[in-house]
Amino acid sequence: MERIREAIRRAMSRKDIKAKPLARAAGLGETAVRDILDPTSADIKFSTLNKLADALECSLEDLMGVDEVPLAGRIGAGGTIIFEDTRSDQTVMRPPNIGGKLEALEVSGDSMLPKFSDGDVIYIQRLHDGVLPAYIGEYCAVRLVTGETYLKLLAKGSRPGRFTLRSLNAADIEDVEVEWATPVVFILPRFARNRLSVI
Question: What is the pTM of this model?
Answer without folding.
Answer: 0.66
